[in-house]
Fold:
Amino acid sequence: MLVGTEVRRVAIVGGVRIPFARGMGAYFEAGNQEMLTAAFRGVVDRFGLQGERLGDVAAGAVMKHSSQWNLVRECVLASGLAPETPGMDLQRACGTSLEAAIGIANKIALGQIEAGMAGGVDTVSDAPIVYPRSYQQLLLRSAKGRSLGEKLRPWLGLRPKHFRPVVPGTLEPRTGLSMGQSCEIMAKTWRIAREDQDRLAYESHARAARAWAEGFHADLVVPFMGLQRDDNVRADTSLEKLAKLKPVFDRSGSGTLTAGNSTPLTDGASAVLLASEAWARARNLPVLGHLAYAKVHAVDFVNEDGLLMAPAYAVPMMLKDAELTLADFDYYELHEAFAAQVLCTLKAWESAQFCRERLGLDRPLGALDRAKLNVVGSSLAIGHPFAATGTRIVATLAKLLATRGGKRGLISVCTAGGMGVTAIVERA
Structure:
């Protein structure tokens, strides 16, 4: 054993995020460090942790500047926590903060630490724009020169092309396709209708707007840079409005993914506090639920499966660990990277052929109750700052269980690179 002699339950005390904002909008002048620090401070203030030393803090960003190599530690130092609190950067694309929460939970479960924080942040408004590698090589050759002539000679090769910025992209290196283009292929493979995608997007906006109106999200969000609430939620959207939008990833006439049924480019940060039950009780802090199971999986998206289909595999593997069925949940929080991705996953679980040939099951995993799916809105409406989505969902699901009742909820997040991160939250 690394530390303990038994596995302890991991309590979810609660989470905080800043409002999620459309890219190039309200947070145009903010960066990853400012946003993640605000989320950390939100947790510290909410749970009275000023000056407290936590065992560890893990978080990350998908897109960050090279100068932010120690991003999380810097945010910890500015959060109000004791400076003796460590901080660690990690990254698993869109599953980053859920992976961070799983890592912190494992340390608590093993007795290595008593409490820790997990989170994530991303901004497309402060993207790390760089110059071409050829210009970098020119600079390095000049720096290597020992004489004045050796330092100046590389500059004779300077050309206008060296000043053409290289903007971060979301293309998969092995396929050259964007996530949206890849999901279009999935939608065609699984025959996901445009109308069904638009309906899922409409439901996400309607449920998020209703949850905001009812005050559900209020104590999960702290104001930041003048923004009080998520600015992507469209309470006035309709199926008719969504139907008028043109496809953006496949414009051949057969495309079905639009700006309305795909997540918008989003800026934001979130964080969640995890602890042993004893640590939480000693400080009179709530225990909203427990992070009980987790699983990560990957698929061969180049040759076989769709890029975003890994959760279709990870969830059944996790259910086997937990000795549960897909019907044994009160809530399902499936990250809405695209409406089509969610619908492909659900259709796969309902397919006898997929479950038999791909999952090795003798019957379909089954259909879930759509009334229990993303009941307070999800990424299509709220937005998706890549690394921040996981802990947003953990905090949301824990609050749902604590305030609306229920025994357990399921989390699923698809990621770039053909990976999926999943978890189960229980309330006992």
Remarks:
- The mean pLDDT is 97.
